[in-house]
Amino acid sequence: MKVTFYGVRGSTPCNGSEIERYGGNTSCVGLDVPGNDPIVFDLGTGLRYFGMKQPSDGSFRGHALLTHLHWDHTQGLPFFAPILCAGAEFDVYGPPQEDGRSIGEILAATIRPPLFPIELERFPGRMRFHDVSDTDFTIGADVAVKARLIPHVGPTCGYRVTWNGRSVAYLSDHQMPYDGSMAASQGALELIDGCDLLIHDSQYLVSEFATKSTWGHCTAEFAVWLAAEAGAKRLALYHHDPTRGDDAVDDMLRAITLEGQRLGVEVFAASEGLTIDL
Ligand SMILES: [Zn+2]
Ligand SMILES: [Zn+2]
């Protein structure tokens, strides 16, 4: 199973020489699972680049595990070339709103004039939406998926994908305790439990969290604590703050690598274009 990062940025896409090594596209990670259709975590602006590697002749079949509906996780969808072709099929899984509205309803209500030139239902490819919350299900022949609601702002899932004994957990946006302490929900621990790779929110420095403690995210220190607590083997720092230049990501990584060595977790910082072979 191969994991490729197409967008690693949180909140909003960004551009400039100061972020060119890690990249400026928002959340999107591709999973290439032998014998199965491709899977993506999230539909941020990185999805456009994932789409460039897929067939655009109507033969595309794929699945998306959407964590939640914030812009940085959905803005790539209207620019995903494969679904602009008749015959393509795209299944999207994600959590419904607290009032019962499904991800399909909300996306259809926002991808339409005047916010976008055409309605989502007029896209030539076929999209199917599936509500998941605390749900275990199978994709394709033999890909096991575990979805669990995790703390963020609004209904948000984390996911764990397991194939052939290898597993990757994806918790892109994860609120740590407001008081800065280290504790996690049962659902988050279940997703990460002993996984080969954890891709986790690391949006804030401790100093930033002090003023943004209710914004739905966590520190890199929390990410490495959680990885160790749940027995993850490797941790990818992810959802980089748009203000975090490459050198500042390097600084964050250096500090967390030391903490990871102390706790027995290998740490790296996710960058656009990087592929990890599990
Ligand atoms: Zn986000
Ligand atoms: Zn969010």
UniProtKB/TrEMBL annotation:
It holds the Pfam family Lactamase_B_2. InterPro entries: Metallo-B-lactamas, RibonucZ/Hydroxyglut_hydro. One of its GO terms (molecular function) is 3'-tRNA processing endoribonuclease activity. SUPFAM superfamilies: Metallo-hydrolase/oxidoreductase. Residues 65-240 form the Metallo-beta-lactamase domain. This is Unannotated protein. It comes from freshwater metagenome.
